[in-house]
């Protein structure tokens, strides 16, 4: 559905996007992660045919951004991080205006606008003035707007930017709905929790370079250098710690007040031996849990923190 080959863009001496290669299939929800100025928006604008690359190629649904820009624009819904609205329109009028630009006419236009309002849970604001909407409501109307022409591909640039916690949760729920509709979605953000449970794939970009690209579980495994386990026993933490410390698969053991931190050696990813070791020694387990790694941890592990 989306493919880039050596996509490159410069602004003077600044290399905004450097030799980017990416391939997304139908139904992928791709979390595009990176700090401000890392190249996320530039990449999305090139895919949307709003900006010409200096080098490289991009395809949307098999069509080149160079030879079929108009066709691509009919296939893509692009939502920038900030967009203008017409203050003297109601929400429904605003959507109908854009539906008309997509040549959606007659009774079908009203029906489609109503459907999209329902999808983004904004039917209750259909007759409100656009100027009276909150930032979160404006973002949801913007999302309804880019869905009017039933695009196969969605490019959402920082949809949760500037929103309060409740509005961010609402946008996250909308992204889940879009994934269920089998749209191919690129959603950029530097607020990592928004992407953690809605994306099937993630890419991390830093200083114009795509340094990580993979399915979420693959990225997590790559970020995890060693497995950390939290182990609790009913009595004698100290004795259990000494027992585990002597095992060849364990790199470090650190007793805490109510549990023991157990770090496995880098090459060890199977820790089923550990409960059996403790059981055989007569210990009763009260806690046995692997440390969870999230996108924030993965991002910090896999990026260098360089700035443009």
Structural account:
The protein has 308 residues and is of the alpha/beta class. 34% of the residues lie in helices and 28% in strands. It has eleven helices and 14 strands. Strands 6-7-8-3-9-10 form a six-stranded mixed beta sheet, sandwiched between helices. α3 crosses α4 and α4 packs across α5. The protein starts with a strand and ends in a 6-residue tail after the last helix. The model has no long low-confidence stretch (mean pLDDT 87).
What are the main properties of this structure?
Alpha-Beta Plaits, alpha/beta, 14 strands, 11 helices, 4-stranded antiparallel beta sheet, 308 residues, elongated, 6-stranded mixed beta sheet, Rossmann fold
The CATH class of the largest domain is: Alpha Beta
How helical, in percent, are the residues? 25-40%
Number of strands: 14
The arrangement of helices and strands along the chain is EEEHEEHEHHHEHEHEEHEHEEHEH
N-to-C terminal Cα separation, in Å?
A: 30 Å
CATH H-level superfamily title of the largest domain: P-loop containing nucleotide triphosphate hydrolases
Q: In one word, what is the shape?
A: elongated
Largest sheet: 6 strands, mixed
Question: What is the number of helical segments per DSSP (H or I, 4+ residues)?
Answer: 11
Q: How much β-strand is present in the residues? A: 25-35%
Q: What is the CA-atom radius of gyration, in angstroms? A: 24 Å
> Largest sheet, order of strands side by side?
6-7-8-3-9-10
Q: What's the CATH architecture name of the largest domain?
A: 3-Layer(aba) Sandwich
Ranges where pLDDT stays below 50 over 5 or more residues in a row are: none
């Amino acid at each position: 559905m989306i493919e880039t080959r050596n996509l490159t863009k410069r602004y003077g001496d600044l290399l905004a996007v450097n030799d980017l290669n990416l391939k997304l299939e139908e139904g992928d929800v791709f979390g595009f992660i990176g700090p401000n100025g890392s190249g996320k928006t530039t990449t999305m604008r090139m895919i949307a045919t709003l900006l010409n690359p200096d080098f490289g190629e991009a395809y949307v649904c098999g069509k080149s951004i160079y030879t079929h820009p108009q066709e691509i624009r009919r296939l893509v819904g692009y939502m920038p991080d900030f967009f203008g609205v017409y203050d003297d329109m109601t929400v429904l009028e605003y959507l109908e205006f854009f539906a008309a630009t997509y040549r959606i006419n007659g009774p079908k236009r009203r029906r489609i606008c109503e459907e999209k309002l329902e999808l983004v849970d904004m039917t209750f604001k259909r007759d409100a003035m656009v100027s009276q909407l909150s930032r979160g409501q404006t973002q949801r109307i913007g999302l309804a707007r880019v869905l009017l022409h039933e695009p196969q591909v969605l490019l959402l640039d920082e949809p949760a930017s500037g929103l309060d916690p409740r509005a961010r949760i609402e946008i996250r729920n909308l992204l889940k709905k879009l994934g269920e509709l089998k749209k191919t979605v690129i959603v950029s953000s530097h607020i990592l929790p928004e992407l953690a449970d809605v994306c099937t794939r993630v890419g991390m970009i830093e200083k114009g370079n795509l340094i990580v690209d993979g399915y979420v579980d693959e990225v997590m495994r790559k970020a995890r250098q060693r497995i950390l386990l939290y182990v609790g026993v009913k009595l004698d933490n100290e004795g259990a710690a000494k027992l585990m410390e002597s095992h060849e698969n364990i790199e470090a053991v650190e007793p805490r007040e109510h549990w023991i931190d157990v770090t496995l050696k880098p090459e060890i990813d199977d820790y089923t031996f550990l409960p059996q070791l403790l059981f055989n020694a007569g210990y009763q387990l009260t806690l046995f849990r692997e440390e969870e790694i999230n996108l924030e941890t993965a991002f910090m592990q896999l990026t260098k923190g360089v700035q443009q």
